[in-house]
Amino acid sequence: GAGPHFGRPAPPPQTGWERLRELWQRDERQRYPEETLNIFKSAFTGALVGWMYGGLPAFHQARKAFIERSHGELFQNRADAVQSAHRAGLRSFIRYGWRWSWRVATFVTIFNVVSTGLSAYRNKTTISNFASAGAFTGALFRMHLGLQGLAGGFVFGTAFGIPAGALLMAMQKFAGETLQEKRNRERRELYEQKLSEWQSRLSVTEDLGQTENNAQGGTEMDRARES
Predict the structure, then answer these.
(1) Nearest to residue 71, comparing CAs of 84, 61, 87, 59?
(2) Is the CA virtual torsion 14, 17, 22, 25 positive or negative?
(3) What is the DSSP letter of 12?
(4) Contact, 34 vs 179, CB < 8 A?
(5) Phi/psi class of residue 176: alpha, beta or left (left: φ > 0; alpha: ψ in -120 to 50)?
(6) Is the per-residue pLDDT at 3 higher than 50?
(7) Is the pLDDT of residue 137 over 50?
(8) Which GO CC terms are listed, alphabetically (predicted)?
(9) What are the residue ranges spanned by the domains of the chain?
(10) Which residue has the higher pLDDT, 213 or 49?
């Protein structure tokens, strides 16, 4: 009696919590969902952009300041002076680039985690998901400044989240479907494929069982005739 239900594939996630858990689980090929990979990619991109944003101006400013301060200093040759100026700029590039890098990467990561989580939980992608994610992230970054900083971060995050979300949704729509729509379609297609394969295996198993029963029945009849 338990045979027909044995091994039946599990249906796609039906609740918001199930879809949230699925974001951090690997599939049969040991791959994370595309939304999760995009979070890691955006974190790396944010870190790189932040490093350039903070490091390049600091490099040029430190190099210029070194040249202005070193007019009275003696160098072995012009190459030595240029190398010293570059080293001063490089130190500032690393120092200030790192400061901006981890901040931008953290902001982008939290924003994407919250917006992706909301989209998965609600099973739809809307501007309100990105606005809420921006407001939460901005408030989180400015909460150490007190109530005024919390309010300012909330407003800034919302103002950032709305156009960022609109841009992302426009890019996804241009591709034909949003990530959430694509994810739902892939879930449905995979479940239908697994269900079809399971039904095929079940049919073969039942046919084999029927054949075996018929063979056993024939053997018992032969024994009865012989006796």
Answers:
(1) 84
(2) negative
(3) P
(4) yes
(5) left
(6) no
(7) yes
(8) membrane; mitochondrion
(9) 34-69+78-176, 178-226
(10) 49
Nearest Cα neighbor of 6 from 157, 205, 145 is: 205
- The string of DSSP codes covering 96-134 is HHHHHHHHHHHHHHHHHHHHHHHHHHHTS--HHHHHHHH
Q: How far apart are CA 135 and CA 129, in angstroms?
A: 10
The whole-angstrom separation of Cα 120 and Cα 118 is 5
- The span from the CA of 65 to the CA of 206, in Å, is 84
pLDDT for residue 16 is more than 90: no
CB-side neighbour CA atoms (13 Å) of 135: 10
Check residue 1 and report its DSSP letter: -
What backbone torsions phi and psi does residue 108 show, to the nearest 5 degrees?
-65, -40
Q: Within 13 Å and on the Cβ side, how many CA atoms surround 8? A: 7
Rounded CA-CA distance 159/153 in Å is: 10
Cα–chain-centroid distance for residue 75? 52
DSSP string, 167-189: HHHHHHHHTTS-HHHHHHHHHHH
- Type of residue numbered 216: Q
Q: Are 135 and 158 in contact (CB under 8 A)?
A: yes
pLDDT value of residue 1: 40
Tracing tokens 């156009």 back to the chain, one arrives at 163
Would you say 22 and 115 are in contact if contact means Cβ atoms under 8 Å apart?
Answer: no
